[in-house]
Specification:
19 strands, single chain, alpha/beta, binds iron/sulfur cluster, 3-stranded antiparallel β-sheet, 469 residues, binds S-adenosylmethionine
């Protein structure tokens, strides 16, 4: 059982300004390894066809399906997701028809491989769509796939646009998990991120979801947003704790204005300094841990009885594009614009452009824009990084057995780089284990970076990634 840091105040305080300056640099979030930066257009729709044909042969293995519904009425200035902003109905109507067709095309290629253990509608805002549209979409999926009784069936909802009727219809369609975007309740912060969302509307939707019997409800928060301060963020945290969600994701604000133009509307002078950002997360840890939540990986908290917490204690947690999960599937299929699949040792990403997506689907081609085939070295490093991200702990002997390598020899170039975090008290190491401890957990992304083979991600020298703090 991994021990939980009970109080982070000493933890954040243990980080001197000098250490903070050293560790706060651009770095990946490791929802994939290699990261999307390494995807290239040499991986084509034909390569993906080959992967689907291979996947079709693994008949007994359950799938993970991700559907991207990119539409939102208005853009939040902090948002880093792939979204399409429109209030017109025609584009989303056209998109849904194309998505139906993509589902059919992929299902055809998967043949009898129909079982689904993990299913997620993400966005954008999936509840931008009407009840009828969501019902039709689910009918199409149900025609081609079978959901296991234990399947995790999840959807992201924005309380500002989601109705009780939609939650009722979604429950009838089999959804059993909800994730609600909140970010911060303070009006000034909401103003600065163009997202006005009252506590009342959030609480009302939360209560409806509870009454409808959703098994697990998650709330998303973001720290490091403009005008956030420790005291007011604490008020948001306390309101969230009062609602008692099963899980909370407390994401570090990924500030990537060179990729997301909408973030240029945020005034740099409104952003909290790295030291304050660290204190904001420290405050979240303090509040959640003292109120009965357990920390899960780098940015989640869960009630002890939630299966995410159980998996974290048993060190069986997994991580993929949807974040931390308890339901590993051997193959993950992405559907819709910009979605990413992870199957048969390759990542494959759909085009982000609606026009290119439409052209491909109407031409009978899978809308793959880029991807990457993983080498054995990628697979070994992905295993190491995922385990550290999930458990803060690595069993070196287990890696040796799984990959038939000598850990010390294989990572002879990397292991000396761990001496520094060991010196700082962030990592402990024996011949059998590597453990990220205490304040080192705040810098897990930096520790993982040591095991990355790709230069740009390793050095953090180019502004491709958000900062690690
Ligand atoms: C697709 S959005 C959520 C669904 C819905 N559109 C909403 O806003 O409520 C998923 C989550 O990603 C997180 N997120 C979006 N942009 C982010 C950024 N730049 N940095 C960190 N987290 C971000 C937010 O917490 C958000 O709730
Ligand atoms: S945070 Fe949610 S509602 Fe806001 S723009 Fe992003 S996806 Fe849309």
């Amino acid at each position: 059982m991994s021990e939980q840091p009970r109080n982070d105040r000493p933890m954040a305080a243990a980080v001197t300004a000098e250490l903070l300056a050293k560790y706060d640099r651009p770095g990946p979030r490791y929802t994939s390894y290699p990261t999307a930066v390494e995807f290239h257009d040499g991986f084509t729709a034909d390569d993906y066809e080959g992967k689907l044909a291979e996947a079709a042969k693994a008949e007994g293995e359950a799938l993970s399906l991700y559907l991207h519904l990119p539409f939102c009425h208005e853009r939040c200035t902090f948002c880093g997701c792939n979204v399409i902003i429109t209030r017109k109905h025609e584009p989303s109507d056209r998109y849904l028809h194309l998505l139906h067709r993509e589902i059919e095309m992929v299902a055809e290629r998967l043949g009898d491989r129909r079982d689904v253990v993990q299913y997620h509608w993400g966005g954008g805002t999936p509840t931008y769509q009407s009840i009828e549209e969501m019902q039709t979409l689910q009918q199409v999926v149900n025609r081609h796939f079978d959901f296991l009784p234990s399947a995790e069936v999840a959807i992201e909802v924005d309380p500002r646009v989601t109705t009780d009727e939609q939650l009722t219809a979604l429950r009838d369609l089999g959804f059993n998990r909800l994730s609600m975007g909140v970010q911060d309740f303070r009006p000034e912060v909401q103003e600065a991120i163009n997202r006005n969302q009252t506590l009342d509307e959030t609480e009302r939707l939360f209560d409806t979801a509870r009454n409808l019997g959703y098994e697990s409800i998650n709330i998303d928060l973001v720290y490091g947003l403009p005008l956030q301060a420790v005291d007011t963020f604490r008020e948001t945290l306390r309101e969230v704790i009062r609602l008692r969600p099963d899980r909370v994701a407390c994401y570090s604000f990924a500030h990537i204005p060179w990729i997301r133009g909408n973030q240029r509307r945020i005034r740099p002078e409104d952003l909290p300094e790295a030291e304050v950002k660290l204190q904001l997360f420290g405050t979240a840890m303090e509040e959640f841990l003292s109120d009965g939540y357990e920390q899960i990986g780098m940015d989640h908290f869960a009630l002890p009885e939630d299966e995410l917490a159980v998996a974290a204690r048993n060190r069986t947690l997994h991580r993929n594009f949807m974040g931390y999960t308890v339901k590993p599937a051997t193959d993950m299929i992405g559907l819709g614009v910009s979605s990413i699949g992870d199957l048969r040792g390759a990542y494959a990403q759909n085009t982000k452009k609606l026009s290119a997506y439409q052209r491909a689907i109407e031409g009978g081609t899978l809308p793959i824009e880029r991807g990457v085939e993983l080498s054995t070295d990628d697979l070994i490093r992905r295993d190491v990084i995922t385990r550290l991200m999930c458990n803060f702990h690595l069993d070196r002997r287990a890696i040796e057995r799984r990959w038939n390598i000598d850990f010390a020899e294989y990572f002879s170039a990397e292991l000396p780089a761990l001496a520094e975090p060991v010196d700082h008290g962030f990592v402990t190491m024996t011949d059998d284990t590597i453990e990220v401890v205490g304040a080192g957990r705040l810098f897990i992304r930096n520790v993982c970076m040591i095991f990355v083979a790709y230069l740009a991600a390793k050095t953090g020298s180019r502004p491709m990634f958000s900062r690690t703090v």
